[in-house]
Amino acid sequence: MGVWCRADALRVARAQWLLRLTAGPRAAQDLADALARRADTSWIKLASGGTEIVAIVHTSTADGPAGHDLLLHDIPRTAGITAVSAHCVLHTYLGGPTAWSGREQALDATQQDRLRTAAAEAASVADSSGVRTPLGHADAGMLAALQRDGRASLSSLAAVTGLSPATVARRLEQLRADGRLFFDVELDSSLLGVTMQALLWMAVAPAHLDHVARALARHPELAYVAAVTGHHNLTAHALCPDPAALHRYLTERLGTLKAITTLETVPVLRTVKMAGLLPATGKPPRRRR
């Protein structure tokens, strides 16, 4: 389990892209490992029999084309890739600061209520916040350090940013209060009984997209729901106890939403990287599934 600090992309002038790459089984594993070592990627998964890589790529909207080097230069020059599709994340309905509700299974009722109260208070502060101070160089250094270790001490953050520990504490609280930074806990979902994961790619008529996405965000089987660009304009990440449970979810829950006109189900074989950064050297962990 790890604790990481993450930035809300829309609040810090960043964009997220869902990248789908197809390659041979050996090339796909090597490419996934290489992508996992980059600081601008997260949630890298091997899917579709080990021949497809799905990853989130973080880009800077303030840097223009220079902020899209991975998409524009690195990927097109990589040998072994047979197909590429990139989907810009337009709106996240579930995920990011909102954790998968299945995690609550390990908590009692009182603990769950405490979490919901804290989340509601944080959302209220973020929604009511006024003019936000732009992110500066010190903020970038603090975020980079917290992305490496979400438990980093104030003194270590002060050393990185050149600010005093008291100033770091105030700035960190401000960024958390206005919703630009949040902390995420990486947890092996198999510990909660999940043995079947799948990425769902759906096509929904634009007039019904928001309604369907909000309905999906309430499904306990889903950990992520987002509107994206492309023919499949809605994507989700399903976590189920077994293949039979996934089948029931697809037929009994998703099947009732008539606005979903097409559905592609992509089984996840292995999670190569979650939210946290990996060391510059060494292999990514292979134990998470």
Task: Give your account of this protein's structure.
- The chain is built from 8 helices and 10 strands.
- By secondary structure, the protein is of the alpha+beta class.
- An 8-stranded antiparallel β-barrel has the order 2-4-3-10-7-9-8-5. A two-stranded antiparallel sheet has the order 1-6.
- A hairpin with a 5-residue loop joins strand 8 (about 220-230) and strand 9.
- Helix 4 (about 135-150) crosses helix 5 and helix 5 packs across helix 6 (about 165-175).
- The longest helix has 20 residues, at about 110-130.
- The radius of gyration is 19 Å and the shape is globular.
- It starts with a strand and ends in a 16-residue tail after the last strand.
Kindly summarize this structure in a few lines.
This protein has 289 residues and is α+β, with helices and mostly antiparallel strands. 32% of the residues lie in helices and 31% in strands. The strands form two sheets. An eight-stranded antiparallel barrel has the order 2-4-3-10-7-9-8-5. It has a two-stranded antiparallel sheet with strand order 1-6.
Itemize the secondary structure elements and their pairings.
Elements: E1 2-7, E2 14-23, H1 25-36, E3 41-47, E4 52-60, H2 69-74, E5 81-94, H3 109-128, H4 137-148, H5 154-161, H6 165-177, E6 181-186, E7 196-204, H7 206-216, E8 222-228, E9 234-240, H8 243-253, E10 260-273
Antiparallel strand pairs: 1-6, 2-4, 2-5, 3-4, 3-10, 5-8, 7-9, 7-10, 8-9
